[in-house]
C-alpha cells in the first residue's frame, strides 16, 4: 500500500470511528443538539383505535398479537389471551413519542445500532426489532425498525451506576435517517411469552391438601379456616411453616410460558396435588419435570360450585345481617367470576419455575416439625 492510499484509509477510519463514538456515547444517556426532525412525532397521526394486529420480529423470532372475538391473543401461543394492559400501554404512548435527534450515519454503522432489518441475511446480534401495526383488513398502518436502547447512567447506592433506558435508536423503512426517540419502548420485544396474560388460578381457603402420584405421599388438613394444620393420618407433628408454605404456594403460583404441544394426559409420571377448599371447590394439579430445564409442566382442573347461601355466624346480631349478607353477595360474585376464568385457563398446560413449587414437592419427612433442642444448662 502506498502512502497516499494509506492516508485515505486512515481518514475513513477516523470519520467512521468518530461517528460511531457520537452515536454510541452514553455518558449522559441522551442525545443533544438539533436535527431536521427533532421534536416530530412519528406516530402522531396513528389511528390507534383501528390497530387490530401488532407484529414484532427480531433476529431470533417473532410474535403476532391479533384481536379475536374482541380480545387480544398471541398467535404463536395457540391464540392464548394476550396481556391487554401491556398492549394498551404501547398503543397509547406511541402517538406522543418524540424524535430527539436524527442523523444520516450510513449503512456500515447500522449493525452497531442493531438497525439491520431481520430476515434479510442479518446476524441475530445485529438485527433490530421490526414493529408493524395493521388494521383488521391487514392494511399496514405504521412500521418502524427498533434498534439499541439509549441508556442513561445514574448514581445509585451500589458501587456501580444504575442504567436506565431513556430512548431508542430507530429507522423508518426505506429511510437512511436514524432517529432517536424519547421513549425506549422497552417492552416492545418479539418474545411470545412476554405478551401472555398472566392471570392464573388461585386455590385459596384450602381445608385439605393431598400429594400423590409420582413422588412422596401425604395429606394435610384443618377443621377450620384459621385452624391448625395436621397430618390426616394422625402420625407425626406437622411443621406449621411447612404447611403454610405449601398452601400459600397454591395461592400465588405464576407461569412463564405456555406448553402448546403438551397435554395433561401425556405428562410423564406426574405428581398430583388435590386441594379442597372451604368454598366447595376442588383443584387437581399435575406436575411433571420439563426435560432439560429447571422448570415444570403444570396442568390443573377445578370443579365444584360455591355455596349460594350464607350461614349465619355464631352470635350474629340482627343489625349485622344486612351488612354481612352484602359482603357475602359481593364475595360470591367475585368468586363466580374467578371460577369462570379459571375453568377457561384449565384447557392449557403451563411452564412453571421449580423454585415456586418447592413447598409442594417436599416429602412427608420434610413436613414434620423439627423438635427444638433443649437448652444447655448454664447458658
Catalogue the unreliable spans. 1-36
Gyration radius from CA atoms, angstroms: 29 Å
Strand tally is: 17
Shape: elongated
Beginning-to-end CA distance, first to last residue: 86 Å
**What's the main sheet like?**
9 strands, antiparallel
Overall pLDDT? 86
Which structural class matches the secondary elements? alpha+beta
The DSSP helix count reads 6
Number of domains: 2
Strand content: 25-35%
Write a brief caption for the model.
The protein is an alpha+beta fold and about 375 residues long.
Note the main attributes of this structure.
6 helices; 2 domains; 379 residues; 8-stranded antiparallel β-sheet; elongated; 9-stranded antiparallel β-sheet; alpha+beta; 20% helix; disordered N terminus
What can you see in these coordinates?
This protein is α+β, with helices and mostly antiparallel strands. It folds into 2 domains: 28-195, no CATH class; 206-311 and 325-367, no CATH class. The chain has helices at residues 3-24, 84-93, 240-249, 321-345, 354-357, 364-367, and strands at residues 53-57, 62-68, 71-74, 80-81, 99-103, 129-134, 140-154, 162-171, 178-181, 206-213, 218-221, 230-231, 257-258, 271-277, 281-289, 295-304, 350-353. A hairpin with a 7-residue loop joins strand 7 and strand 8.
Amino acid at each position: 500500500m502506498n502512502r497516499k492510499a494509506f492516508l485515505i484509509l486512515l481518514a475513513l477510519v477516523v470519520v467512521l470511528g468518530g461517528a460511531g463514538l457520537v452515536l454510541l456515547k452514553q455518558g449522559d444517556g441522551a442525545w443533544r443538539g438539533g436535527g431536521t426532525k427533532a421534536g416530530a412525532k412519528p406516530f402522531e397521526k396513528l389511528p390507534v383505535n383501528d390497530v387490530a394486529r401488532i407484529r414484532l420480529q427480531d433476529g431470533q423470532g417473532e410474535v403476532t398479537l391479533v384481536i379475536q372475538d374482541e380480545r387480544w391473543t398471541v398467535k404463536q401461543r395457540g391464540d392464548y389471551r394476550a396481556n391487554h394492559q401491556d398492549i394498551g400501554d404501547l398503543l397509547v404512548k406511541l402517538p406522543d413519542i418524540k424524535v430527539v435527534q436524527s442523523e444520516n450515519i450510513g449503512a456500515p454503522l447500522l449493525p452497531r445500532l442493531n438497525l439491520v432489518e431481520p430476515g434479510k441475511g442479518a446476524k441475530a446480534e445485529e438485527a433490530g426489532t421490526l414493529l408493524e401495526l395493521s388494521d383488521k383488513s391487514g392494511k399496514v398502518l405504521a412500521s418502524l425498525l427498533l434498534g439499541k436502547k439509549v441508556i442513561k447512567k445514574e448514581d445509585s447506592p451500589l458501587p456501580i451506576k444504575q442504567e436506565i433506558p431513556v430512548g431508542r435508536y430507530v429507522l423508518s423503512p426505506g429511510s437512511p435517517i436514524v432517529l432517536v426517540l424519547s421513549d425506549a419502548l422497552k417492552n416492545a420485544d418479539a418474545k411470545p411469552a412476554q405478551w401472555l396474560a398472566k392471570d392464573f388460578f388461585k386455590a385459596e381457603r384450602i381445608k385439605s391438601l393431598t400429594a400423590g402420584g409420582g413422588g412422596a405421599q401425604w395429606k394435610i388438613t384443618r377443621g377450620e379456616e384459621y385452624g391448625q394444620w395436621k397430618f390426616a393420618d394422625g402420625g407425626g407433628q406437622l411443621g406449621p411453616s411447612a404447611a403454610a408454605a405449601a398452601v400459600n404456594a397454591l395461592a400465588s403460583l405464576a407461569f412463564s410460558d405456555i406448553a402448546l404441544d403438551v397435554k395433561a394426559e401425556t405428562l410423564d409420571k406426574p405428581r398430583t396435588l388435590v386441594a379442597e377448599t372451604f368454598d366447595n371447590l376442588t383443584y387437581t394439579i399435575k406436575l411433571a419435570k420439563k426435560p432439560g430445564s429447571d422448570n415444570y409442566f403444570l396442568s390443573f382442573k377445578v370443579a365444584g360450585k360455591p355455596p349460594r347461601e350464607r350461614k349465619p355466624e355464631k352470635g350474629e346480631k340482627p343489625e349485622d345481617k344486612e351488612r354481612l349478607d352484602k359482603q357475602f353477595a359481593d364475595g360470591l360474585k367475585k368468586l363466580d367470576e374467578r371460577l369462570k376464568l379459571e375453568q377457561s385457563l384449565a384447557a392449557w398446560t403451563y411452564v412453571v419455575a421449580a423454585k415456586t413449587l418447592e413447598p409442594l414437592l417436599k416429602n412427608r419427612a420434610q413436613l414434620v416439625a423439627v423438635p427444638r433442642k433443649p437448652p444447655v444448662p448454664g447458658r
